[in-house]
Every structure is written in structure tokens, then in C-alpha cells.
Records
---
Amino acid sequence: MVDIPVDGDKAVFAVEGLDKLWAFRSRLEIPLAHIKGVSANPALARGWYHGFRLLGTNVSGILTAGSFHRDGNNVFCDVHDPERTIVLELDHEFYDQLIIEVPEPAKAVALLQYKIGSAHT
């Protein structure tokens, strides 16, 4: 699971608990201006294929965490429960997409959309 505090003009994606070990990352800092879009999208986290694993863990149906290469894009995943998944589309970053689990997807999407709307104006 990932916690998302917003610090000024950056969103900090803090990987929690043992997921730090499985994902080989503890946090990502992304400028709000580099977030092109955010949505709740459980479909991207379902299934067994998440791309070519660069560094991380993929136990089908249980956990997907780490860096993957999928459809020509670099993707960071941290998901146990696909129903709590949000997807961020990024620009000017190593990762093209973040596919992450959050406690309350609708709340996280609304907060990030509000913050990135403010950053782009």
C-alpha cells in the first residue's frame, strides 16, 4: 500500500510496510506538474501479466510490487488488492505510469486531481 502526502509542488508516494522490500523502493517524489492524469482503474492491476519485471516481485493474485516494462513503458506497481488501485500517467519521469494501491481510491483520485489542476494553472 502507498501513502500519498502532497508536499508543496510534489506528491510523495511512500511505500508502506514490507512492500518496501518487495518493491525495492520506499518512496517516489513526483512534481505535480509531471502528473498528466490520475484515475481509479482496478483492471490494470488484475491478471497475471504485468509486464517484464525489471526489479520487484510478482506473485499472481497476491502481490505485484516493483518496476516493470509493459507496452513500451516503465511502470511502478505496488498492489495487493486490485479494487483499491489508482493509476497515474506521468510525463518527464523514469516511470511512465504508477499503478498503486491506496486505502481510499476515490479520495486519493479527487485529491490528486485537485492538486494537479492547481499545479497546471
Note: The chain has one domain: 2-119.
---
Amino acid sequence: MRIEKITENKKQFLDLLLLADEQENMIDKYLSSGDLFALFDGDLKSVCVVVAINSETCELKNIATYEKYQNKGYGRELINYISNFYKSHFKTMLVGTGETPSILSFYKSCGFEMSHRVKNFFTDNYDHPMYEGDIQLVDMIYLKKDLSK
């Protein structure tokens, strides 16, 4: 298994990024300024994008694993890698997601804890209703991770 920081042709990973953020113009807002990491285990399994918010905080804006490789530890491996990668640069990592119990549970198991909520984020910023399974996404739930631990 290897993880690479991708610096060129980031849009080649759009199909995978769209699994986690299904509107391309929203991805465009952070892809060029963010750091893109790709996890390979034979072939490509997962990607993530991290952006600096300020001098103390970064945000995991997108993390996605191809469906056939989900629940095999690739997402967790990528989060562990970026947490170690950024701990010398930032104190805190944020991640925002919909109010989906399984996804919130995953982030909590990776060391994140509840931070805050942005009301109506998905309904205000996307041009169509967003769903995770049968749950409509309305508010953005932010979690935070202390990178010094």
C-alpha cells in the first residue's frame, strides 16, 4: 500500500471525488487550493483533499473510496496518514459531513469529536436535494480532531 500527494492533473480523480461530493462545482471550490492524496493498493482505492483554513486548522474536504473497496480500512488508513502528515503544521483537523449515523460513527472511530453544525448547508449550497441512503442531508455536521494527540 502506498499513499501519494498528487500535485498535477487533480481532475483525473473526479470520478472518485464525486462519490463523496456529488456536485462538481462544489469540488472545484477546494480542489485547486487543496492537497490531494491518493491511496493505492495495487490500483487506486481512495482519495482525499485537505485544505488549510487558517494557521492552526485544516479541513478534510473530501474523502472517498471506490464502493467495491469500502469497509476494508482504506479510508481509515488515509485519515491516519493525513493526521500524521499535518500534525506538524496544524493543531486541529475539521471534517464536515451530513447527519448520517454510520459516517459520523466512522469519523468518531478515527479520533474526531463533535464540533458544530452549519444549518441548511446542503439545501443552501447544492442545486438538488442530497441523500445518503434514505437520509436527506440538510445541515453540515462538523467534527474536529486534535492533531497533537
Note: The helical segments are 14-20, 24-31, 74-86, 101-109, 121-125.
---
Amino acid sequence: MLKLKQQLERLADFTGAAIAWLTVLMVVGTFVVVVLRYAFDLGWIAMQESITWMHAAVFMLGAAYTLKEDEHVRVDIFYRRLSDNGRAVVDLAGTAVFLLPMSIFLTFASWDYVATSWAIQEASREAGGLPYPFVPILKSLIPTTAMLLTLQGIANAIAAILTLTGRMPDEPRHSVPQGEVI
């Protein structure tokens, strides 16, 4: 089970690293749009749309990595005071009751929406916007995000089960390397 958890987390690490590079492209693209707009009085709708869509991709594809790193939004008034086993129970219950059903539902609920976009070769509604196949690609990120969250949820559930059974090796999470000051 530990190997499966590690393999699933490697996928989240890979998508997190890829998305980090996408943010660099967003910054460069935004800089280009600003320079074109204010220095040369030129507008480029497709470039502006691509930045918005990259932003959406960062949030959607980065969700599983964020969950893996335990950086998602959580009201942890009680959670932080719990023992490791208490946290594992909360994590396992939250994953089983909320995350996995929602992710699986989102995967299936979005399937026809995405398939229709591909079937009609959907393009941007804006004149000069992004052409086909960019809209269907972006819409395909909806079930992809749900599937990545499902896989990371399975990894989190495995970690909780290993913790509860006492078979989870000690893994330093969110520790500060020696010599660094926060």
C-alpha cells in the first residue's frame, strides 16, 4: 500500500512541477499583453484569453498537488490539536465522505459537457479569440482535475489507513531545513 501511495503522490508532484512552469508563461504573457497595450496601443484577444485559461489550468491542475502538500483550505480549530491517529480518522472520513464522492461525481457529470465541446469543435466566442481545439482542451481539464483529486484522495486515504494501523513510516512533512529561519 505504501508503494501505491508513493506512486500516486509522484503524479501529484509531477503535475505540481508542470503547473509551476505554466505560471512562468502566465507572467511572460501578461507582460507581453501589457507592453503591447500600453506601449504600442495593440490588443491581442487570443493572448489575453490564453492567460485567463492558463490561470484556470493552474488552479484546476494544481488542486491535487495542493491536497498532497496539505495546503488546502481547512478550518482546523480542532484538527491541529488532535493526535496523529485523530487526524488520520478525520482525513479518512473527509476523503471517503466528501472528496471521493464529489470527485467521482464531477468526473461523470462533466463528461458529456466536454464530449459535446469536442464534437462541435467549440472555439472562443470572442472575435480574434482562441480557435479550436483550445476551448475543448480547457474543458477537458474539468474531469482531469476530478480524476487527479480522486487519485490523490486515494493516496491520502492510504496514508490515513497506514497511520491508523501503525505502519506509516515517519515522513517529515512541512519541516524547515536546518539552518533556515522562517
Note: Residues 2-40 form the longest helix (39 residues).
---
Amino acid sequence: MGTSLKTVEFLCEALLPLELRARPMFGEYGLYLGEKMVALMSDEQLFVKPTPAGAAFLGEEHLCPAYPGAKPSLRVPDERWREKAWLTAFLVATEAALPVPKPKKPKAPK
């Protein structure tokens, strides 16, 4: 089915002034705060990377893979999307708990 760009834009705009940005990824979208990927949009659903901080917001009963073969993530129920303060706090707590990504190696010259 895939996630529409309209859905991703709605979510990013709804959470302003949080600087959430989306990047196309494998036909879906990765959601970033700063340089950390905190969530994935897949089939019109929001999946947040699991962390102990995130589990405090959404119990582990919400763990499931975003797509077949994926690691489990915390699926945010659709009715919670409009709870701006809750969702913002959830994403900020997740971002704080994730490690800083390793720097990418520069591409070798051709």
C-alpha cells in the first residue's frame, strides 16, 4: 500500500515547532530529529524506534515489525497521532535515548 506524502506532511506539520523531517526510504519514509532516525512511516502507520524511554510512553504490547523481516518497533495507534504534546514528548524522549549515528565514510574518488 505505501504511505502517501500527504500523510507524512500532515504529521510533520502537526508537530511543529518540532523539527521533524522525512526522507524517502525503501518506498516509505524515515522520520528524523536532528541526525537521528526516530521513526518510520509504513503503510500509513507510524512506527517509533524502541527504547526504554519509548516503552514508558507506549507499553511493549505495541511492539511489531513495520514490514515483514523488520526489527520490531513501537506502533503508534492512529488515535494518538492528534495528541501533539504526547507525541512530541514521545519522539523527543526516543531521540534522546538513541545513540549518535556513526559518521559516514567519504566516498572514494573514481
Note: The chain is about 25% helix and 30% strand.
